[in-house]
Amino acid sequence: MTKKLVDHVKKTFGVTFNDEQVLVEAFTHSSYANDHREQNIKNLERLEFLGDAVLELTVSDHLYNKYPDQPEGQLTRMRASIVRAESLAMLAKEYDLHEFVRLGKGEEQMSGRNRPSLLCDVFEAFIGSVFVDQGMDVVLEVLREILFPKIDSGAFSHGMDHKTALQELLQKNGVVTIQYKVVDKLGPDHKREFVVEVFVEGDSFGRGAGQSKKAAEQEAAKQALISLEESIES
After folding, report:
1. CATH architecture for the domain at 162-233
2. How does pLDDT run along the chain (234 residues), one tens digit per residue?
3. ∠ CA(218), CA(222), CA(226), 5° rounding?
4. 127 and 139 Cβ atoms separated by less than 8 Å
5. Which residues are catalytically annotated?
6. Quick one: which of 122, 154, 151, 157 has its CA closest to 23?
7. Do the Cβ atoms of 91 and 108 come closer than 8 Å?
């Protein structure tokens, strides 16, 4: 198992561990350690604790520099959508980390290998192990490859409130009027799609579609935020 894990991490992330046991520890669930108590095996929990803090810091730093005009509240919401269990579990599955987790018999039988909270723990522990063995620079290299591009592309935007973000951005210098209007309805009644346009002081700022008015409003706000960001950068 150790060689396969080491090879996978080297091939997938370009990281060669100095202390392979630190990496193995990151993939050892407490249930496995409990099933082998006589071997006094370390589990992933301490590395998970460390990795959680490393992710909070690195993601915060990336968001702070990527979105210089976003207020603290929106940055906090963005970070929460990125480091939540479902998001990190998705990354663990995408890069096949779940295949290398050492689980106890009971946890294995209960399909723990696919449980989001467990996979989140594993991803955090993996980042913690990279930090311990390689340092922050290598952690950042890994995250620039597998996480930051997803953040920049809006992959975690399903966990964000774009309407609130737009309101906070537009009203940071004073109150402005923001209105969402349904401008079209598409498809049959059983599969209706709403098209919503967001207007700021009477001017159209973005348009979005969704299977509910709320979803369409969120998409319209998202498009408005993208347009505003592009205008700021240019």
Report:
1. 2-Layer Sandwich (3.30)
2. 789 999 999 999 999 999 999 999 999 999 988 888 888 899 999 999 999 999 999 999 999 999 888 888 778 888 888 998 888 999 999 999 999 999 988 888 887 788 888 999 999 999 999 999 999 999 999 999 999 998 887 777 655 667 877 887 787 767 789 999 999 998 887 778 899 999 998 999 999 988 888 888 888 988 888 887 666 555
3. 170
4. yes
5. 52, 124
6. 122
7. no
Which pTM value belongs to this model? 0.69
Q: Tokens for 119?
A: 């996979």
Each domain of the chain, given as residue ranges in start order, spans 2-159, 162-233
Alpha carbon distance 168, 174 (integer Å): 10
- Asked whether the beta carbons of 153 and 82 are under 8 A apart, the reply is no
Query: Residue 184 carries which side chain, given as an amino acid letter?
Result: D
Is residue 122 within 8 A of residue 137, CB to CB? The reply is no
For residue 172, what is the DSSP state? T
Looking only at the bridges linking them, the beta strands covering 203-210 and 193-200 are antiparallel
Taking CA atoms, 6 is separated from 14, 24, 43, 103, in Å, by 10, 8, 17, 18
Which three-class secondary structure state does DSSP give residue 138?
Answer: helix
Tell me the one-letter amino acid at 23: L
Which is the CATH superfamily of the domain at 2-159? Ribonuclease III domain (1.10.1520.10)
CA angle at residue 14 from 95 to 119, to 5 degrees?
A: 30
Which residue type sits at 117?
S
